[in-house]
Amino acid sequence: KLFFTDYGNAAKVERCDMDGMNRTWIVDSKIEQPTALALDLINKYVYWLDIYLESVEVVDYQGRRRQTITKGRQIRHLCGLAVFENYLYTINSDNLSILRMNRYNGTDVEALARLDNAKEIRVYQKRTQAAVRSHACEVDPYGMPGGCSHICLLSSSYKARTCRCRTGFILGSDGRSCK
């Protein structure tokens, strides 16, 4: 799945399949300006910052079990969001410090370091990487991902895929080759 935020005409948190199909709103009420998003891949939770409502909130992948983690004026200065173990990590754009807070109740806020011009944050650690299983976009014996001549995108499950073409090409009638 691909998760993303939008605060155009109607603010929301959405998800879709990697090929763009099955687009679903998972949060579309009591939300104004969601600017950062982080996923808990193990427990299947979506965290987001709303700088207008000055809150950090969480829902499960279906948009249920919504909970406010923290609320207050300090949120409007946050950008970027990452989750790892029991903490959320973000950047305070006022003083460019990396902040760590308890992901369950927003307590234990601690400034860890300062970075110049930081706007985004990611945690890279072996435990944050999901185990890879066999999937529909694996390279075939001819070196083509999922049998697609250009781009293979996972679809509704790891067993299904959609082939797409690079700019300037169109997908052939076989659904795999680009012309």
Automatic annotation (TrEMBL):
<dbReference type="InterPro" id="IPR000033">
    <property type="entry name" value="LDLR_classB_rpt"/>
</dbReference>
<dbReference type="InterPro" id="IPR050778">
    <property type="entry name" value="Cueball_EGF_LRP_Nidogen"/>
</dbReference>
<feature type="repeat" description="LDL-receptor class B">
    <location>
        <begin position="1"/>
        <end position="43"/>
    </location>
</feature>
<dbReference type="GO" id="GO:0005886">
    <property type="term" value="C:plasma membrane"/>
</dbReference>
<dbReference type="GO" id="GO:0017147">
    <property type="term" value="F:Wnt-protein binding"/>
</dbReference>
<dbReference type="InterPro" id="IPR011042">
    <property type="entry name" value="6-blade_b-propeller_TolB-like"/>
</dbReference>
<dbReference type="GO" id="GO:0042813">
    <property type="term" value="F:Wnt receptor activity"/>
</dbReference>
<protein>
    <submittedName>
        <fullName>LRP1B protein</fullName>
    </submittedName>
</protein>
<dbReference type="Pfam" id="PF00058">
    <property type="entry name" value="Ldl_recept_b"/>
</dbReference>
<dbReference type="GO" id="GO:0060070">
    <property type="term" value="P:canonical Wnt signaling pathway"/>
</dbReference>
<dbReference type="Pfam" id="PF14670">
    <property type="entry name" value="FXa_inhibition"/>
</dbReference>
